[in-house]
Write a structure and sequence with these properties.
Blueprint: H1 2-29, E1 31-44, E2 49-55, E3 61-62, E4 67-75, H2 76-80, E5 88-93, E6 102-108, E7 121-122, E8 127-143, E9 149-150, E10 157-165, E11 168-174, E12 182-184, E13 188-189, E14 197-199, H3 206-210, E15 214-215, E16 220-227, E17 230-237, E18 239-241, H4 244-247, E19 250-252, E20 256-263, H5 265-272, E21 278-283, E22 292-296, E23 299-303, E24 313-316, E25 327-331
Parallel strand pairs: 1-5, 8-12, 9-13, 18-21
Antiparallel strand pairs: 1-4, 2-3, 2-8, 4-7, 6-8, 8-11, 10-16, 11-15, 14-16, 17-20, 19-25, 20-24, 21-23, 22-25
Length: 334
């Protein structure tokens, strides 16, 4: 009996070890599926491309040098030892395969695109969608105005104009920006400036960079500066200029207008103390002499003091829009 139990125990022990070896083989040496992440490394010559965007089969955006999730098949030991981003999905696309100025290109990936161990395969092999936009060459109009500057102007100075030279340049513009034919230039620095100046080799605005616009020729910018004129306002009686026989028939309803004088500080201050030197008037011509009420817009101003002539500018009714600067008269019948 003892001999039987000893022999049977040895058989059971051998069976246990065989079962254990079978389990180890099945769960470590057999094939299995898993998911892992590899570095996504598409290569394309993008010199002629304004933008390139990648998407997976579900339409999710893929980013170069980031993770691409794939399903792999292989020995379970190899599968278990995979670590995220230890391997890559690296492939090259020839930009010549892109048709037209913009569109969609699909690239099916192959086993050769993955540098996984030879024992591991990608199942299923994914495909990648490439959305691309090329550049177009256009002629752009450069835009700037008196406010296209940065920094603080010195007291008493102002900018008369900021002008790009030439006014139009050739540039590369993304094809998906069909309405772009004008672009602003970068603001010019004026800190401490008191005289007109030019800057060669200037650049486009930050917005142009954001739009990926690339100038194909250089341009300069010309800045004209001047002393800011001083101003003074005061009321004055409005006179009528017309033929002597017509003056008797004209009833002026607007008797007083506001005068604004502009010019060098010293002259303006002196002129404001001698307001009688400025005589505003309206001109009533023969065609205006039909009876009735009408508006007259032909203004003028006599500057009686030669010291102010040509040095002081006069604006009548400066607080009113130019198109509305009129005086109302009534012409009486003969």
């Amino acid at each position: 009996m003892k001999r039987y139990l000893t022999a049977n125990f040895a058989t059971m022990l051998m069976a246990f070890f065989l079962a254990l070896l079978t389990w180890i083989y099945l769960f470590t040496q057999g094939n299995g599926y898993s998911e892992t992440e590899v570095q996504f490394l598409p290569r394309v010559d993008a010199k002629e491309l304004a933008s390139v965007q990648y998407e997976d089969e579900q339409g999710r955006e893929l980013y170069p040098e980031r993770a691409l999730r794939i399903r792999v098949l292989g020995p379970k030991v190899d599968i278990a030892n995979l670590r995220p981003n230890d391997y890559t999905c690296e492939f090259r696309i020839d930009a010549k395969d892109f048709k037209g100025t913009q569109g969609v290109f699909r690239r099916s990936l192959t086993r050769a695109d993955f540098n996984l161990r030879t024992s591991i395969s990608v199942d299923p092999l994914p495909s990648v969608t490439v959305r691309y936009v090329r550049y177009e060459e256009r002629t752009l109009e450069l835009q700037a105005d008196r406010n296209s500057y940065e920094g603080s102007l010195r007291p008493g100075y102002e900018i008369e104009s900021i002008t790009p030279i030439p006014h139009r340049i050739r540039a590369r513009v993304p094809a998906d920006r069909p309405g772009v034919d004008k672009i602003w230039i970068r603001n010019v620095p004026v800190e401490g400036k008191t005289e007109s100046f030019s800057i060669p080799g200037w650049s486009l605005s930050t917005l142009a960079s954001d739009l990926k616009i690339q100038p194909l020729e250089p341009f300069a910018v010309d800045v004209k500066m001047a002393l800011r004129p001083a101003t003074k306002q005061f009321p004055a009686d409005l006179l009528v200029s017309a033929k002597p026989d017509a003056l008797k028939r004209i009833d002026l309803q607007t008797r007083t207008v506001t005068i604004e004088i502009r010019g060098p500080e010293e002259l303006v201050q002196e002129a404001a103390q001698r307001q009688a030197m400025f005589v505003p008037y309206i001109v009533v011509t023969d065609k205006d002499m039909e009876p009735g009420t009408k508006n007259i817009s032909e203004f003028g101003c006599h500057i009686l003091e030669p010291r102010f002539q040509g040095k002081v500018e006069v604006v009548l009714m400066p607080d009113v829009k130019p198109e509305n600067r009129q005086a109302k008269i009534t012409v009486l019948p003969k």
